[in-house]
Structure formats: structure tokens, C-alpha cells
Amino acid sequence: MRHIAIVGSGPAGYYTAEAAQRLWGDAVRVDIFDLLPVPFGLIRTGVAPDHQSIKGVSKRYEKVALNENVRFIGNVAVGKDVSVAELQGLYDAVVLATGAPHDRPLDLPGTGLANVFGSAAFVGWYNGHPQHAGLEPDLSGATAIVIGMGNVALDVARILAKTPAEFAGSDIVSHAFDALADSRIQRIVILGRRGPHQIAMTPKELGELGELARAAPVVEPADLPPPEADEPLDPGLRKSIAHLRHFAALGAGERAGKSVRIEFAFLAQPVSLHGDGSVREIKVELTRLAGERAEGTGVFGHLPADLVVSCIGYRTSPIAGVPFDERAGRFANEEGRIAAGLYCVGWARRGPTGTIGTNRPDGYAAIERIAEDLERTPGGEEKQGRAAFDALAATRGLDVVTFRDWKRIEEAEERAAREGSPREKFVDIAAMIRARG
Ligand code: NAP
User: Fold this and answer.
1) Ligand 1 within 6 A of 311 CB?
2) What is the tens place of the pLDDT at every residue in 51-61?
């Protein structure tokens, strides 16, 4: 029997469990740990609430979860309630699938002002992550600055721009739905330190900005390179640039009746934030490209900024005793191997890049590596797996939330849903635990 512990129940964790099941069938027991009493990680608290089709992938994870050989062990903090070393003593392999829940810091003067947030907090707020649900961003100002030109910046800009009716069918939590309904933001500036050819926005997501009810994207035609310069680009990026060209060609007529502008500001890097307790202004420096890098020009400008959300990437949360690559912001690893019996997968392995689907091959590769390593070192001490963990959990008085418990929590969330919404998420841990009955 193989005993595998997976830490983190997001996409990387469940694809790894699926791979273990496919490889070993009934000869494996997998325990998937999560800090929260609810599973699916980024699917629940990262993917935008109006992207329900992406969230649908959790049905696939549920199939894995409902197999008896796989357990969900929610409400257990690995590194605190139980150490990684302890898990290593109980399981043949421990796989860290903890994602990258912290913001890459925007290390600038003024980031301590009120109403300046990283995307982990802001996205967590509208997605009801217990850690960020109480954020209370002030949306009463006119201008929001979104820093970064990746898909998270697009998510944040789109969510800020939508009308209540456009959230129909989404699972945006009520506190965010209500706050956004009262929002007075009229101008959203997406700030990129490099140019249009360096954006990290994918075509489908960028195209959505052109379909909003009260908001229109604004691209200055002069900011775009000549069309022939797009030809050598890869096809995905070319499609994204085609959207920017379309936005640049929109005339006043097409923007008529749109009360919110989503402006693209290229080649401008943030320098400092200013305000009176709360942020009011951002100083930027115009840049030029030196090869692929942005280089300051020494020309500065100021933009009003009543809300700032920095969407510049993420970092993994270090765990005591596990080697960490500070520069890259993830566990130090060689192709997913951290140390004997200890592995990482997904964003915790490779950093915060790629789509949900990228984690599938990642999870399968992790299990292949584990299988190789187990074969190379046969006949070691037999690990006790789940039975031994249960004994440890009982001694420590851990209140483990199971997948069956989660299904009851989920039913309660579905019962509480606003009309037209699939669920109303519980946003605090105590309420989740109460709801399991
Ligand atoms: P990202 O794609 O890496 O984009 C980060 C952006 O921040 C880049 O434009 C980057 O510019 C900029 N940036 C980084 N450091 C900066 C700094 N110090 N100052 C100013 N700008 C800075 O990251 P992300 O948007 O967080 O997305 C993470 C991953 O999740 C991506 O793979 C993304 O595609 C994926 N995702 C997908 C979806 C979807 O498919 N619907 C939705 C959300 C996220 P430079 O290029 O100049 O570094």
C-alpha cells in the first residue's frame, strides 16, 4: 500500500490525487490536507466569480474526492497543527500543493496608505476568502489604479466595472456584490510598466472588457506599434493585440452611454503613492523598452488614485523546515523534488504561471517522480498513513472537516444563494464549521 499526503486541495492537489488513483488504484491511500474547512483552493477563492465555467472543473475533483481511497482533511494547518516532518514519518510521500497565496510585494513608498491592496487580498475579498472577507475597500472615489497587465489585473478591472445585473449567475459574495453596487468608480486605469507587446493578458479574458454594460475599454491609438510589428508575435498574443487594436478604434459613438472608462496606460511604472491617510495619487515614471526590459526615462507624471490594487504576481507561503527559494518565491526544488519523500507541485513548484489546466500534467508528473523514487528505494520502513494520522489528530484534538462535511456545507451555501446565484459562500471559518451540522 502506498500512503500519499497532499497539502493543499486546489487544482494541483486534486490532479495529483487523480494521478495517484490512476496509477495505483486500490493500492494507494491519499489524504488531502487543507487549512480551510472547504476544498478546491484557487477554484473557490481565486478564479473570478463571473467565470463559473472555469469553476466547473471542481466537478472533476469531486469525482476523485468521492473515491474511498482519497480523503479530504480540512481545517488542519500543516506547519502548525501537524509538521511536515511528522507527515513525512507517516506517509511514503508528502506533496506540497499549497499554491502561492501571498502577493508579490509592491515595494514602493506609500503602499501602507489605506485603500492600497494586493490582488490576493482584493480577489479574496470579492471571492469570500475568510482571510480577506473583512477587507472593506472604499469604492467611493472616482479613480481606481490596477497595477500589472496580466489576467488578474483584467479580473480586478472587470469586477470593478460590472453592474449588479452583470453578476447574475456568478457566485460573488454578497458583501462584495453590495459594495460594488454602490461603487462610484468611473475611471479604472490599468498600468503596465512595459508596452502592448509585453502584456500577459490572454485573448478571451481581454475580449471580455469590450462586452461590458456600462464600461468601455480605452486604448490610445498612438500607444500601439504599427500593425506589421504584430506579425512575428505568437498567435495568442497576436489575438490579444487585435483586441487592443479594436479598443483603440472605438469611437465616441461606441462609448456613448458608458459611464466607466477602463484605460490602458502602457510604459508607465509606479514610483510612489501619496495621500492623506488614504491613497489619493500615484506617481509614475514613463519607461521605454531596453530589449525586453522596462527602463525609466526620468519623465514623471501623477494620476489620481482613490483605490490601488496591485496585480503583479504571487508568492508561496514558506513552511518551517522546508527549503524555500526566496528570489523565486516558491519551494526550492528540482523538478518537484524538495528532499527525500518531500515534493511540490503546481504554483508551489513552478511559481504563479499558467492556467488551471497547466496543473494537470504537473500533478501527473509529480506522481511519476514519486513512483520512480519509491521503486528506487524499495523495502524501507512501512508507513502507517491515514490510521496513524487519525491517532495523531485525536491526541491533538484536531477538528478535522471531511469531504462529507464539506458536502453539507456546500448544500447550506446553495440554500442561502441569492436568486440566480449558485451559492452564497460562508466567509468565516466558524460559520463553515457550524454548517456541517
Ligand atoms: P502575470 O500574468 O505574471 O502578470 C503580472 C503583471 O504584473 C505583468 O504585467 C508584470 O509586468 C506586472 N508586474 C510584475 N511586477 C511588477 C512591478 N514591480 N511593477 C509593475 N508591474 C509589475 O500574473 P497574474 O496576472 O497574477 O496571473 C497569474 C497567473 O494566473 C497567470 O498565469 C495568469 O494567466 C493566470 N490567470 C488566468 C486567468 C484566466 O485564465 N482567466 C485568470 C487569472 C489568472 P512584466 O511583464 O513587465 O513583469
Assistant:
1) yes
2) 999 999 999 99
